[in-house]
Amino acid sequence: MARGFFITFEGLDGSGKTTQIRRLANSLQAEGRTVVTLRQPGGTALGDRIRKIILDSRSEDAVGPIDPATEMALMFADRAQAIAEIILPALDQGHIVLCDRYTDSSEAYQGGGRQLGSERILQMHRAACNNLQPDLTILLLPPLESSLERARLRNLRNTKRHGTDENRFERESDDFYRRIYEKYEEIAAREPQRVVVIRDEASIDQIEAHIRDIVTTRLTPIPATR
User: Does some domain include residue 191?
Assistant: First the structure.
């Protein structure tokens, strides 16, 4: 059986990743393809527990500041579990895996935002993830200010509606997010064959169509049935 295809989506919160992953999954499934979706952190029982620690703004209220190296290690613990439990088994079965965030996020957020540096993140990726790389990364990179505004408004709505609090990163300064944005730019320039950047402030439908065109050129066509 042919190996599956691993697609990751990257970008700041508020860039539209979740919406576009859902739309792409629906489109691929309509073609008859088997699609597995997950998010990081999270996606496994262990990962969901790690997600609460990393993203909940009340974590630091309870235990004090989380050291950047600790944050990085937790991200990779989540990622290693997702690879073993979900990603590799799905790829081995020939499925398409759509993942909301992967190691590029760690390089951008912890390497850039927390200023740990790229090499430290990439060394951790080689050790914890056996250097498993996506076949394709869609990087949604609309203007920084609009992404931040959408992300902060969304998290406030979720807190009011569902009682969930994933605002820990949103409390960071604009300079923190500027470093993340610049690191994403650096990753895209370094790996242009893997990372496709979409900068448009276009409609959701237009961005969906653009992503669909990109993915179609990379996937092996489904054999015609007689």
Answer: yes
Coil, strand or helix: which one is 98? strand
Domains of the chain: total: 1
- Which neighbouring-strand residues pair with 96? 5, 35
Give the separation between CA 168 and CA 161, rounded to whole angstroms: 18
- Residue 156's CB is within 10 A of a number of other CB atoms, namely 13
Under DSSP, the state recorded for 223 is P
Which domain does 74 fall in, by range?
5-218
pLDDT, tens only, 103-133: 999 999 999 999 999 999 999 999 999 999 9
In a domain, 223, yes or no: no
CA-based angle 197:191:28, to the nearest 5? 55
Hey, what are 132's tokens? 């498993």
Model confidence band, residue 226 (pLDDT cutoffs 50, 70, 90): very low
Q: Does residue 158 surpass a pLDDT of 60?
A: no
Q: In this structure, is residue 144 part of a structural domain?
A: yes
> Is residue 224, in this structure, part of any structural domain at all?
no
**Nearest-angstrom CA–CA distance, 205 and 196:** 18
**Distance of alpha carbon 78 from the chain centroid:** 13
User: Considering the entire predicted model, what is its pTM?
Assistant: 0.90
CATH assignment at residue 139: 3.40.50.300
Query: What pLDDT was estimated at residue 67?
Result: 93
